[in-house]
Design brief:
Layout lengths: L10 H6 L2 H11 L6 H8 L3 H19 L2 E5 L1 E5 L27 H13 L4 E5 L10 H12 L4 E4 L2 H10 L4 H11 L1 E4 L9 H8 L5 H14 L2 E8 L5 H18 L2 E8 L21 H14 L11 H4 L1 H7 L6 E4 L6 H5 L9 H9 L4 E5 L5 E4 L25
Parallel strand pairs: 1-8, 1-9, 2-3, 3-4, 4-5, 5-6, 6-7
Antiparallel strand pairs: 9-10
Helix pairs in contact: 2-4, 3-11, 4-12, 5-6, 7-10, 8-10
Bound molecules: iron/sulfur cluster.
């Protein structure tokens, strides 16, 4: 077991480290948690300090997860893109009469879930826009319809924004509403719509319609009801480093109280088609830089050490090549195969709709790590020590696009 930087980093490099960064990394290696200011210092690290940060993050990953990197076979079902919340960063939402407005009825949602199950999925991930005409019982009907057809599939569904909307429509408390959804078959929830838990930043991004406090309240209630959730941050827009460390701190405090987060997923702001980016007055960043992306994953690994074991990379936002790099920055999970992806694509992401288990395993092996298929709650289903996952074609044909070209 390593508890000093001297065991991880050569003497010549150690001598060049900034004394504060040295102290913070030593502190985390000795088992103490780092505070917000210290996280900010790590986010600002450069050169040798930055490489020392990656070393420690990678060490913690190995200590917690060994050499295994996981993924889940799942399918995204975005049942509607109609939404009247008007978040300024969002290019997914359409107006009800837009020609590209979509609405999937229950039969189609169940058909997609069945198709995913038949292709080996253990999970469906269901989220949609806040459609103004959404029937009050629709979320529970989705759960009941899928569970009737496929009782064993795990339903990971409904962001805190949707829970806020559904509870209001049904005039129910969050506790009663979530309890009912759980009884109808909800297995866990995405901790999306967190963006950044800061009133000023949220006011710009989402007009603070779902406030920071409400997000926290819904997440804590979900955990209390027995529903695990993911946790996320969306960064690289109008935010600053201090917003990042405050956000991480809030997530860590919740985890200490509830232990309900399964993982932390940094989500890079995809600027290309985002209306926010094109608002000239706001000086919006074009997403995080590559170095910031590496830092976000590495600092998260250190900041959440012993509290959140899984740091997930979002391949839809970053693409397989960056995923490969991030496997050396504290990441131990590649998320879902998805089969259908529309949210990141609407924002301008170009990494396709599906990364198959076979492809994920190739990326993982390229970094001398062992791929494993997991379920939603991180139980391992199969570890691919010596054999590969079954090869299959993506559900949506890719034509000439090959996301794995960088490995060929
Ligand atoms: S981010 Fe979600 S809630 Fe906000 S406008 Fe887009 S779909 Fe609606």
């Amino acid at each position: 077991m390593i508890n000093s930087l001297r065991d991880l980093i050569e003497n010549d490099t150690l001598k060049k480290l900034n004394s504060n960064i040295y102290r913070i990394l030593e502190k985390s290696l000795s088992g103490d948690e780092i505070n917000k200011k210290e996280a900010e210092a790590l986010f600002s690290s450069e050169n040798d300090d930055f490489f020392a940060l990656l070393k420690v993050a990678n060490y913690f990953r190995k200590e917690v997860n060994g050499n295994i990197v996981t993924y889940v076979i799942n399918r995204n079902i975005n049942f509607t893109n109609v939404c009247h919340m008007g978040c300024r960063f969002c290019n997914f939402a359409k107006k009800i009469n837009d020609p590209d407005a979509e609405w999937l009825n229950l039969n189609e949602i169940v058909r997609r879930a069945r198709e995913a199950w038949d292709r080996g999925a253990t999970e469906v991930c269901i989220q949609g826009g806040l459609h103004p005409k959404l029937p009050g019982k629709f979320y529970r009907d989705i759960l009941l319809s899928i569970k009737k057809e496929i009782p064993s599939i795990h339903i990971h569904a409904f962001s805190p924004f949707e829970i806020w909307y559904g509870a209001a429509k049904n005039k129910m408390s969050y506790f009663d509403y979530l309890t009912d959804l759980k009884e109808c078959g909800l297995g866990s929830m995405p901790g999306t719509a967190a963006e950044i838990l800061d009133v000023k930043v949220r006011n710009i991004l989402t007009k603070n319609k779902l406030s920071s406090d409400e997000w926290v309240k819904i997440i804590k209630t979900a955990h209390k009801v027995g529903l695990k959730t993911t946790s996320t941050i969306m960064y690289g827009h109008v935010d600053e480093i201090k917003n990042w460390s405050n956000h991480l701190f809030k997530i860590r405090e919740i985890q200490k109280e509830t232990n309900g987060f399964t993982e932390f997923i940094p989500l890079s702001f995809v600027y290309k088609n985002s209306p926010l980016f094109h608002e000239k007055k706001l000086n919006v960043k074009a997403g995080p830089t590559d170095i910031e992306i590496m830092k976000m994953h590495a600092v998260s690994r250190i900041f959440f050490h012993k509290l959140i074991d899984n740091i997930q990379v979002s391949w839809t936002k970053l693409g397989p090549k960056k995923v490969q790099i991030l496997l050396d920055c504290g990441v131990n999970d590649l998320g879902g195969t998805l089969m259908n992806e529309s949210i990141s694509r609407s924002a301008g992401s170009q990494f396709g709709q599906e990364l198959t288990g076979f492809e994920m395993a190739r990326i993982i092996r390229s970094k001398n790590k062992i791929p494993a298929q997991r379920d939603t709650l991180y139980m391992k289903k199969e570890i691919f020590n010596t054999h590969d996952p079954k090869f299959y074609e993506p559900l949506v044909k890719r034509n000439s696009f090959d996301p794995m070209e960088f490995l060929n």
